[in-house]
Amino acid sequence: MEKIPIDVRHLQALVALRDGGSLARAAAGLNLTQSALSHHIKALEDFHGAPLFVRKSSPVVFSPAGKRLLEAADAVLPLLHQATRDLARMTQGGRGTLRIALECHTCFEWLMPAVDAFRARWPEVDVDLVAGYQSDPVALLHEGRADIALVNSLEPQAGTEFYHLFRYRLVAILANDHPLAQKEVLQAEDFRDATLVTYPMPEDALDIVRLVLKPAGIPYTRRSMALTVAIVMLVAGSRGIAVLPRWVVQTYLLRKYVSARPITEPGLTAEVWAATRTEDCDKVYLQAFMTLIRETSVAHLADVV
To answer: Helices (DSSP H) in the chain: which residue ranges?
Structure first.
């Protein structure tokens, strides 16, 4: 039998490149380094003696060879997803449950596209959300109240497996006429005696506090609001500064209600992890859901790194 020099990883790489629009975003969606993804694509190009896409094009422009492989990927990958689902149903039983516990207030912009894609591929799995903000969603796994917990930090504990999903930048949200809006980048000192407008969550869970203000010994005050629109209204009225992912306030930024500025030269970043019980980590649909979170987040969100 003739050996076919194309494997599933090659097809997944090209689809991720098309959907992500760049090597960096495609690599993040596949949970690979950019160099590893480049190596996969280069090996395929070397074998066939043809480039698959135009380097440094934005958005990515594919060559005729790349377009032909994308056609194959669009035909083959859905069949493989279906086969995987069928095998999981045969070996792991019929219906499943996916109860999601959340630690963050800003999850829904990236969670909903992943849930929609998951429901399309795994219609026999019941998806549910554990209501409300959870200060310790991992505990719900071991209480039998959740199947997956989405958290902002990795805290290893017995009987729990953690999977990195993605990393993203946080930005300072300011009134358009705020004096700090004249700066290109905000430093820790710029927050001295400022009012932080935040979601109602523990102070040590705020990345701006934990990673920037406390290490620098910067005093501040705090005001909490449960709704994003309320936070934006206070910021727009010069009642404080918020620190949020850009995607949460993208609509308000486009309408020029408020302004956004980077925090520190390297940028302030946060992470999202998924946690499952060790006994559940081999459930195919749980792994599929985490993969879809990576893919959809990298493809659709601003400032994913």
So the answer is: 8-20, 23-29, 34-48, 64-92, 108-121, 137-142, 207, 214-216, 228-236, 250-254, 284-300
Q: Determine the Cα–Cα distance for residues 305 and 298; give it in Å rounded to an integer.
A: 8
Residue 24 host element (H or E)? helix 23-29
Q: How far apart are CA 133 and CA 136, in angstroms?
A: 9
How far is it, in rounded angstroms, from Cα 34 to Cα 112? 26
| Assigned token pair, 76 | 């083959």
Q: Which runs of consecutive H residues, i.e. helices, occur in 158-223?
A: 207, 214-216
Nearest Cα to 28, choosing from 91, 132, 143, 110? 110
Single-letter code of the amino acid located at 264: T
**Is the distance from CB of 160 to CB of 275 less than 8 angstroms?**
yes
Taking only the tens place, the pLDDT of each residue in 75-124 is: 888 888 777 766 766 565 556 789 999 877 777 778 888 999 999 888 88
- Rounded Cα distance between 98 and 83, Å, is 20
3: helix, strand or coil? coil
**For residue 3, with 0-12 CB atoms within 10 Å meaning exposed, 13-18 middle and 19 or more buried, which class applies?**
exposed
Total-model pTM: 0.70
Question: Measured at the alpha carbon of residue 31, what is the angle toward residues 285 and 66, in degrees to the nearest 5?
Answer: 100
CB atoms within 10 A of CB 6: 15
Q: What is the dihedral of CA 48, 54, 58, 61, to 10 degrees?
A: -60
CA 252 to chain centre: 21
Q: Give the 3-state secondary structure of 61-120.
A: CECHHHHHHHHHHHHHHHHHHHHHHHHHHHHHCCCEEEEEEECCCCCHHHHHHHHHHHHH
59 upstream amide cis, omega within 30 of 0: yes
> Whole-angstrom Cα distance, residue 224 to residue 252?
19
- In a 13 Å sphere around the CA of 146, the CA atoms on its Cβ side amount to 24
